[in-house]
Here is the input.
Amino acid sequence: MRIKLVAGNWKMNKSLEEGTQLVSDILAQLPPLNGRVVFATPYIHLSSVAPLLKGREGVYLAAQNCHQEEKGAYTGEISASMLRSVGVDYVLIGHSERRQYFGENNELLAKKVDITLSKGIKPIFCCGEPLEIREAGTHDDYVAAQLEASLYHLTEEQFRQIVIAYEPIWAIGTGRTATSAQAQEMHAGIRARIAAKYGAEVANDTTILYGGSANAGNAQDLFSQPDVDGGLIGGASLVAADFVAIVGAM
Ligand code: 13P
Here is the structure.
């Protein structure tokens, strides 16, 4: 069954106090859910946010990254086991900002996907093309190559744990949202590629999120597309009323 989902990616924002307040404000205003709500907070917020989510059906905790190794001498890093130990359910893998500023490539991301799955955490795998690729018209193949290189080694059972987030880089933090038609076209294309690899049933069950300047004003239009199963929300996830409205559009 395909699960609808809205995730807030806070990126590097909010003090601990501001973050726990934001979660409390959102939880107090949440409408009846038509899918899942995920909070992808900074690492240091996770253990404080986890108890706030306890007993709240349909609400989940995510990290924004994790290290690819099990454990060891990797100063400053956080492992998937550590994340699991504080109650993390999902991890963002391969956000374009990790690819761009931290040199994360498809092979490294494949390892992160593997370690995450091995600890019982679901990857939210991010893909998406830069502007020059969109303008060259090769975005379809570009995104397909990202999926193939980092995910297609998975078994069908493993792949069923994956959530895909399509985030065109030109739309992230720019206010230039993809039109709902552009999002639908890409999502349908991604689903068709998944069907070719894992079969129609797996593809039909896969949750594919849109991310990139999604907000309270455009969420309804984006989410009404048949292959857009929710959103990965940056800026608008930092304002309780906006995030709640986006969840309501799911
Ligand atoms: P914005 O919603 O701020 O454009 O960010 C999107 C994003 O990168 C979510 O991961």
